[in-house]
Amino acid sequence: MVDAVGRGFGPAPEVEVAGRAIIDAGLRGDSSPLWTEPTWTVKNAEELLRRIFENYDEGPGSFVEKLENQLGGAEPGVVVQAAEFMALHLLPLSNVRGSTKRYRVEQVLSWTDAATTIPSEMETAFDSRGAFNGGTGFNVRQWQHFVWLAKFVQHACSQSVEVRDRAIQEPELFAQLTEGVDHEPKGIKYSVEYLAWPSYFEPITSRNHRWRIRERYLKDIGGLSSGDDDPAISQDLAVIRKAHDAAAGTAVDWYLEPYLSEWSGSGKRTGGQKAWLVRQNQSGTPMLPMWLEGGFVSVRAEHLESLEPGSSVSQVQRAVNSGYQHIDYAERKQRALEFHRFLTIMHPDDPVVTQSGDRLYLGVVVDEAEYSDDPTSRLRREVAWRRESIEARDLPAPLPRLLEEQGTIVDFTDGLTVIKEWLRETPDLLPDDPDEVTNENLPQPAVVPRLRAPDDELAASLHVKREDLQEVVELLQTRNQIVFYGPPGTGKTYLAGKIARYLAGKEHGDHVKTVQFHPSYAYEDFFEGYRPAQGEDGQVGFSLEPGPLRKIAAEASAEGNRDKPFFLIIDEMNRGNLAKVFGELYFLLEYRDQSINLQYSPTETFVLPPNLFIIGTMNTADRSIAMVDAAIRRRFAFVELHPQEGLIEGMLGRYLQAHDKEPLRAHLLDALNSELGAGDRDLMIGPSYFMKEHAASDTGLERIWRYELLPLLEEHYFGRMSRAEVHERFGLPTIRKKAARSLGAVDYIEEERTESGQAGSEETVGAQSQ
């Protein structure tokens, strides 16, 4: 499809028609599509430049607010020309709503009393999808775009009518006309060229991208370039596109696969927008004044070869190894990581933060990385800086932790939500329409979720008091990590699991993981370590694999999970060598708002997510609990589960009552623990031994005593009492008599035999004390 001039159409025909109407009318000296008179005159362009360029407004406020003040009292032709410039700036953008485009053009037109109108083809263009995503980089250069357009009008009007008419007829001549404007940036130039000749010029506003696409596919047209100036690159791209469109049988989009990965080296970013902290004091040189004045951010990179943006980690590492042989291996690894972040992972539209003294400075990356001749700032990215700095005291979480992380280029994405709020105070650093940011993939803030209160149903199912459960939940809420400790059979692991699953919610059963420590358990098992793995070539090597803590921390930190509680239960915690298992993670158990560098991943930082709760269990009958040092005790809240007091006091009695059973087992447990005495507090027997189904029969009770309790007591009293003495003092007959003496009357279990020999139920026999 072609128009009357034979220029054809590109990816957004409605937009191209509306844009051409403005450009063609202006170059021919015809009446404006928005008004009854011509607006592209030297007089109007000079007046607009005088108002917005010579009288530049450095004060606060958005570009549109300043423009309205600057155009106050201007002639209608100047105002209508500004409305045309607003349309040319906005029409091709796919990242701005049609309602925003229409509103902005109407807003400018409202500043004059002239009889203006928006033509139907422009209305249609407003409601159609644009041709390219300009991003923040295009948006923040709006003032520069208006200046370029005014200078373009000046330059075009200085040419003869024949030259202007031929520019409409031939794309190469149109490129010569736009080349006559000596003003940066080039984004609006490329956009206007595309609108005028969409079948020839690419809708690509980044010179870096245009050059890289041309270089990647130059071989497809013979490998000889026309030159490195803009008209030559445009000419080569036109030939390249024609060849690829013919091969594909359709119009190709350089920003879709497989093309994007081929020319960019990295493909489309996954995982959403990121934010960055770049240290401004580099090698003892404060860079901030240069950054603010020049509108960029940089790293020194004076010994780095000129790698392309999008280079892989291995490519960057090889370049660093070659250029930085004078520094040690560990530092070269760190440099390679930071250069890779700057070259490849950092993208246009990413916020960037730097700190100087007690002030934070905030900006937005607006272009790809490029190289300069200045060795102090050789590798650069253009940045639109926010004019007002921010006080760096009493900052909201997680910014204090992020600011303490080591390195020149720090991933600051955890603070993106806070940064976005600051950016909203600077309208030109965000899309004009506030609705444009509502659907962005902002990272969820990491928070300590509010744990649900235990209800009566949970308390009844666990046979504990609800107020005691509430105290446990409040401890978890404030401390994040607790330990249930107590004698055997007190239900430590059972309670930990039930409480964790209740707090996680029925629909989030996978938010609870359990791991058991033992003497050979190590950091590599718990957090991360190297394990044998088969590579793609079939050879067996070693790969760094995550352990249960790293896995659940990653799940808790994942997008969509950061406000939900996750629980890691560490059973038999004191049986492991805690200092060996936790390693450097000890620090994070006490300082949840801090991060650390990892043993096997020294270039990475790790933080324990605030929504990850840890519940440990320790058996006080295990002598290894004495080895638990003060460091671990300081990092956990310790909740004792003791049969005769606190959370599980009376548990067995409540269990028996809830199941309509006689209280004999509770009396026997009390008598046994009374015989053990206060001197053996950590050995006292817990109620879970007697809450098993087979404990309801006399035979079952005998077996529990013989095979579970007495061997435990024999081991504990080894060397102090003989086996016979243990059996005599703590055997079931002795404890039955003790219970009877204490109570005066006790319920015995009789095993009523049926004809088939099956055990009967518990019943009261009213035996008197002897």
Question: What does it look like?
Answer:
It is a single chain. The chain has 770 residues and is an alpha/beta fold. The protein has 5 domains: 13-200, no CATH class; 206-268, no CATH class; 276-437, ph1033 like fold (Roll); 456-462 and 481-631, Rossmann fold, CATH 3.40.50; 650-768, no CATH class. The protein has 32 helices and 21 strands. The strands form 6 sheets. Strands 1, 4, 5, 6, 7, 8 and 9 form a 7-stranded mixed sheet that branches. It has a 6-stranded mixed sheet with strand order 11-14-17-10-18-19. A hairpin with a 2-residue loop joins strand 5 (351-356) and strand 6. Mean pLDDT is 87; it is low at 432-441 and 745-770.
Secondary structure blueprint with pairings:
Blueprint: H1 13-28, H2 42-54, H3 63-70, H4 76-90, H5 98-109, H6 120-127, H7 135-140, H8 142-157, H9 161-169, H10 171-179, H11 187-196, H12 207-217, H13 230-248, H14 259-264, E1 276-278, E2 281-282, E3 285-286, H15 288-294, E4 296-299, H16 313-323, H17 329-345, E5 351-356, E6 359-371, E7 379-385, E8 390-391, H18 399-403, E9 409-411, H19 416-423, H20 456-462, H21 466-479, E10 481-486, H22 492-504, E11 512-516, H23 523-526, E12 528-534, E13 540-546, H24 548-557, E14 566-571, H25 578-582, H26 585-590, E15 596-597, E16 605-606, E17 612-619, H27 630-635, E18 637-642, E19 645-646, H28 651-658, H29 664-676, H30 698-716, H31 723-730, H32 732-743, E20 745-746, E21 767-768
Parallel strand pairs: 1-5, 10-17, 10-18, 11-14, 14-17
Antiparallel strand pairs: 1-9, 2-3, 4-7, 5-6, 6-7, 6-8, 12-13, 15-16, 18-19, 20-21
